[in-house]
């Protein structure tokens, strides 16, 4: 079933008479339109892209013919409000998390029908990936696999983290990626304790542990991988931690399957760290879905509500345990994992079984 038809089916299931889609990634997912500063006004009978003159020709090329294009005259929200008020429908649902408080207040006050804020309508559709999406993500993973092998031959003491990130990003963009999934994380030495330590001008030194978290985009779809390596010989505690993190990741990979809850998987991953008495050094979530956004639900978590979500076949989750020791350094390993009804599939092939040590 095409995405437009699936989306209309979702509207009917939720008894939504009219829906204002504001999230650009959701619009791309449903219609194929990749422009910005636009919104989708949807009913079970008609989908209308409200946009301006810059995107009309692009929309014609990218969207199916059953999506109408409306070129606004007075403004994006102003014309949308006019269309809603003229619709004759009793209610309208909108993606409340996409507007500021002030925008939302004005939007609600200007609309005649009952206004219902709602989030997650399209995001839940995006949880599972269709064959086309998986093909793009596989290509994006291949780009980061190649990037990791390339950068291993480039890294040496005396380089800055920024120089490493620049080389990685250039390689991704010239070897099949259309861009990066996010700003590349390169964190060395003490900075590796920063879970999201974007590259700085710090010089990489012998004895540093070095974490690289990076991803490529292919047709808008993201990959996400983390590898940690050693620059020469590192503190024995960090080398030991590397294999504890690897064990936790592999435990998650081996266990995850369709029907398992997020809480169950989170507990398995964290259980490895509890076994070694280092669970207090795992300071972030154990993973997330990935697709058009680098961070999508469902997340691997034990939080109330979210932890009860059951994984489904064709969800694409990252598994990314880590240990971070203040004043010493941090370790993280992350791979993109395709969930199936049986054994999961790790999409990346970049080496991780042993701590790679760069000669100094």
UniProtKB/TrEMBL annotation:
Origin species, per record, is: Schleiferilactobacillus harbinensis
Organism's domain of life? Bacteria
The Peptidase M24 domain, residue ranges: 136-341
Stretches assigned to coiled coil: none
Q: Please state what the protein is called.
A: Aminopeptidase P family protein
Q: Name the UniProt key words of this record, in alphabetical order.
A: Aminopeptidase, Hydrolase, Protease
Output the Gene3D superfamilies linked to this UniProt entry: Creatinase/methionine aminopeptidase superfamily, Creatinase/prolidase N-terminal domain
Q: Which residues form the Creatinase N-terminal domain?
A: 3-126
InterPro entries in alphabetical order = Creatin/AminoP/Spt16_N, Creatinase/aminopeptidase-like, Creatinase_N, Pept_M24, Peptidase_M24B
- A Pfam cross-reference name: Peptidase_M24
Task: List the molecular function annotations (GO) for this entry.
Answer: aminopeptidase activity
